[in-house]
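HUMAN: Mind making up another protein with tokenized structure?

ASSISTANT:
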Amino acid sequence: MPITAIFLDDGGVLNDNARRALQWRRWLGEFLPRHLGGRAQDWSEANLEVAARLFDGTFLQRHFGARREDVSFLEWERAYALEWLGGMCERMGRPLPDEADRIALMREAHRFVTGRVRAGIPGAAQTLRALHARGYRLYTASYGPRYDLEGHVATLGAGIRELFTELYGADLVNLLKESAEYYRRVFAHAGEDPAEALVLDDSPDNVRRAEAAGARAVLVAPVPVVGVRHRVAALTELPALLQAWEAGAEKGRGLG
């Protein structure tokens, strides 16, 4: 069946995570003193320390143990806000806001920062415009929440947000991307037939989950990965791959 809808990951596909991290600390350092006091540089350094632990691959295991497959986004957000803001407040010697206030402050901080960071992958905006012009319906399918994605997508360029039918993060389906059900929920919520959907992601595990949910999937990676059928080095290569598929050239290019 022809591809009619494309679901794109954010970090590693639309935006450069390394460039984002450097800018993130700067803008967060500007935001937090307005609400919690202290110096911008100190908050930036606190964030660097806390982020190293948050993203070391053990967060879900520490908080949820064997339940990582069925953790809801709301559960994850509560745990993340506690460790993220709590860790920084502890380092800064500041009192930790109560749960409702720290979640609200975390969301506000994320909106502030994501609306200012500029980390788009070179050529991403032009490629999105080209895909939309060819009639593909565009969505994100990301780990992060929609309140992050709004900023990440809008800062890619003028009019880019309007190219997307919807921005799917874990919050809209209340399920983390590690779950085998994540893509099924996203496709169902979007009203898209998985057989006509394409997922573009930089994680081999997510590519496999998308395929298990009935979609075609393409990995974004600089080199081939064992067990992954379709790969591009960057988003900018996707239109050519789609054109080859449409022309029935998969076998000739070694993609079938």
